[in-house]
Amino acid sequence: MRTMFDALGSMGGQGHQELHDNDDESLRKRYRTIFISDLHLGTPGCQAIALLDFLKAHNDVVQKLLKRARKGCRVIFIPGNHDEFARGFIGHRFGDTEVREEAVHATADGRQLWVIHGDYFDAVVQCAKWLAIVGDNVYEFTLKLNRYLNSLRARVGLPYWSLSSYLKKKVKSALNYVTDFEVAVANEARRRGHQGVVCGHIHRAEMRDINGVLYCNDGDWVESRTALVEHFDGTLELLHWAPAHETQGRGLASNAVTA
What we know:
The protein has 7 helices and 13 strands. By secondary structure, it is of the alpha+beta class. It has one domain (2-118, 162-258): 4-Layer Sandwich (Purple Acid Phosphatase, chain A, domain 2), CATH 3.60.21. α2 runs parallel beside α3 (59-70). The chain is globular and about 50 Å long.
């Protein structure tokens, strides 16, 4: 699931920012655009509370998105492989929210970014759906184990830690899969004449240059709790979010990389 807020959509800010429910007017001015992906709303692994802390579970997140759309924020919903039903509504509008297969975003400094979910570049999803189902089940198991481990870590005052992200970084085949995916997406963006691409799907937040194309993956809200934001000068920034319940009542955004 990819949601793009264009022009005035935001929560949080540069560095460390404290969020309050009545901060909407000031917070809207912090970012020109915000990209979030792979929320997995309704699943056990979804970190809706952390996302709400960033957006300021589940239905509340949707209501917050709709509220921002009503206030003039352009919201584009690009369905992913877990939103197959929603792909039947591509080309339609629901109030102030657009459902699209892809989008092209022009940054304030003139760069053209191709915005997609990314599952069409996943050979497993496209060519071996049975393997994707097996992989999803294994993934769900690691998420359940991850929740158990993090509940123990929280009791002893340790921060959140993602088991599945750790395993991905350690398994060579997973790293090769990620690299192949990133290169394939960047190459297609270049073929289409874009300067960059924004995607999700693989749950790995990243922003780097690939053969002259800016590859941006805004991560997810199951493991990495990340978002890609654009400042009003066109600078792109990848943020990692630590929710208030982990940071003594303050939601903190830490910078990962800028471009």
